[in-house]
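Justification of computing resources. Each target in the renewal requires a structure prediction run like the one illustrated here; the chain below, 304 residues long, is used simply to show the kind of job we budget for.
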Amino acid sequence: MTATGMMVSTGKFNNNLSWRLPLFVQIIPAAFNVIFVFLCPESPRWLYTIGKVDEARDILAKLHSNTGDPYSPLIDLEMEEIKEKIVLGGSDKHFWDFRPLFRTAEDRYRAWMVVLIGSFGQLSGNGLITYFLPVLLKNAGIVSQNRQLTLNFVNSVTSFIGALSGSASVDHIGRRKLLLISTGLCVVTLAIVTGLLSDNGNGNQVRANAGISFIYLFMVIFSFGWTPMQSLYGAEVLSYEARAKGLAFLNVVAQASSCINTFGIPVALEKLGWKGRSPTDSIHSMLANGYTYSLPDFPDLGCL
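Resulting structure tokens:
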């Protein structure tokens, strides 16, 4: 959001700073991450698995105990919970062993949910707008670079607000219900965008502006429902032993799906224009909505 906001101003530059300056600014938070990551304590669970039990106790006492006593009743209880959950010789200790994801019918069902969240988190129409919003704006008759950059910044702000609102509401609405509502609304808004921007709006500026408004509405809805759930749902449905591998698998699925956005959508835009644009994403959203019915809400899994 900071970068897109800066580009509204730097886009007026007539040199390479127009794109380099926003890129340089994004290095600053990355540098802070590199510096402060060394201040983060090690995971007590990981320390326990490699036999450093005393160090695990010390970290738990530092973070959770008011007295700092590593042998307080609270720390003893937490150490017992870690002991119960962790199998020292389990398959989760080997980076190459993904059997916990597919060992039983329940594990395969959880892995299937990970695939759904990872794939449809990229293929529900959001990829088209995220990667190719300037193209959509140009097709809507907005050719001014400054206005395109401004509208792109507005899209970042509204999506950010939608994501924050969704994160705050997910515990009140419920995971499955939130996904169903947001995906269903995504189907409707994409269908409307398809109609409004078909044939590039036929030169009708009112129609084009309405199409842009529904593009923004789509991104707010998507950010409200899918942005918080992509990282939350997978972690909640996976068993403890499979959680690390499952989240890695989720990222693999998401990145593989994003290849369609990166390499497939440009071809569709070039060859088919608007006919291959929103209709395809509407179909993806409808499929996502259909498959979302197979997702249970988190309390139904009994995997806490």
